[in-house]
Amino acid sequence: MNDNDVYRAQEAMQTAMKKGPARMGLIAAALVIGIMIMKPWVQIGAGERGIVLNFGAVQEVVLGEGLHYRIPIMQEVIIMDVKVQKATTDAAAASSNLQDVSSTVAINYHIVPDKSHIVYQSIGIHFKERIIDPAVQEVVKAVTARYTAEELITKRSAVSDAMRTNLTQRLLEHNIAVDAFAIVGFSFSKIFMEAIESKQTAEQLAMKAQRDLERIKIEAEQKITTAKAEAESLRLQRSNISEDLIELRKVEANLKAIEKWNGILPQVTGAGAVPFIGVSDLQKK
Question: What is the pTM of this model?
Answer without folding.
Answer: 0.57
